[in-house]
Amino acid sequence: MRKSRVQLVLATCLGSFLLGLFYFQSSLNPAMEDRILGTSWHAKSGRSPLQALYDSDQFEQSSLQATHQQRRDLLSNVCSRYTRKRRLLTPDDLRHLVVDDVHGLLYCYVPKVACTNWKRVMMVLTGQGKYRNPLEIPANEAHVSSNLRTLSEYSIPEINHRLRNYLKFIFVREPFERLVSAYRNKFTRSYNTAFHKRYGTKIIRRHRQEPSTEALERGDDVRFEEFVYYLLDPRTQHEEPFNEHWERVHSLCHPCIIHYDVVGKYETLAEDANYILQLIGADASIKFPSSSKTARTTDDMTAQFFEDISPFYQKRLFNLYKMDYLLFNYSIPSYLQLR
């Protein structure tokens, strides 16, 4: 039994080593890799999206190209400043990277940053005609794991090939706005009973004084300040990782290990989404769905949720999400009292 465990550990370490090694080195030329790994894409221009992006950077940049170059540069600079040791990727790090082998795309999805619509678009792009209009795909179907492949499902050589040769993109959002959006969606909607049972009951049990029996059983009336206490409680992350809906973007997508070619923002969603669709030469009929603005969480709404959070806890929560603010160039919210 002990011998088998040792073998398992060695195999895991070797796999991680190979993943890190192949990500930076390759003894095969791209054409040969495509033949061996069975990947090829054919944009209208005959170039891969990655070539389309960096070839355009050789000429005079448009304002949009300049913006994305600035985002890449800032991300690289912040990573260099705050990341002392570059660790190796593991398969678990790749679960959020959705693969499009048709167009040569890797998309790291971040919940509460238009990820449902991006998954719909990815299903259209990879569906070989099965889907034509993203909005015709029900939201729950977009989240069925078998409908899209993630990078963690591939072999190590296949993973490294895609990391080197595919266009990698991510969409981010103002961290506290995303956090409040997650809270509103998971704890204030009556239909999210799974989250109420899984997380709400625990939050109420630990962070509410003299909770009622009904609240302990249902977990459907978690207050925002209780949610904040739960996030800051050392026991929370000690027991299990954060749920993906409130996990930090840098922990979901590892932007200091994986080089993202396009960093889109929720604040410029339509413009950035169209930019990516242009880079891959997507059919003109494929449009990124417009988001409803009536129910979305805004900065003013986020500020209201923080009114009842003391400066002490505001500062601790900001420190928890600080790297996302730095990496993606978001300013400290004016409503916070950090001094």
UniProtKB/TrEMBL annotation:
<dbReference type="GO" id="GO:0030166">
    <property type="term" value="P:proteoglycan biosynthetic process"/>
</dbReference>
<dbReference type="InterPro" id="IPR018011">
    <property type="entry name" value="Carb_sulfotrans_8-10"/>
</dbReference>
<keyword id="KW-0119">Carbohydrate metabolism</keyword>
<keyword id="KW-0333">Golgi apparatus</keyword>
<comment type="similarity">
    <text>Belongs to the sulfotransferase 2 family.</text>
</comment>
<dbReference type="InterPro" id="IPR005331">
    <property type="entry name" value="Sulfotransferase"/>
</dbReference>
<dbReference type="GO" id="GO:0016051">
    <property type="term" value="P:carbohydrate biosynthetic process"/>
</dbReference>
<dbReference type="GO" id="GO:0000139">
    <property type="term" value="C:Golgi membrane"/>
</dbReference>
<keyword id="KW-1133">Transmembrane helix</keyword>
<keyword id="KW-0812">Transmembrane</keyword>
<dbReference type="Pfam" id="PF03567">
    <property type="entry name" value="Sulfotransfer_2"/>
</dbReference>
<dbReference type="GO" id="GO:0008146">
    <property type="term" value="F:sulfotransferase activity"/>
</dbReference>
<protein>
    <recommendedName>
        <fullName>Carbohydrate sulfotransferase</fullName>
        <ecNumber>2.8.2.-</ecNumber>
    </recommendedName>
</protein>
<keyword id="KW-0808">Transferase</keyword>
<keyword id="KW-0472">Membrane</keyword>
<keyword id="KW-0735">Signal-anchor</keyword>
<keyword id="KW-0325">Glycoprotein</keyword>
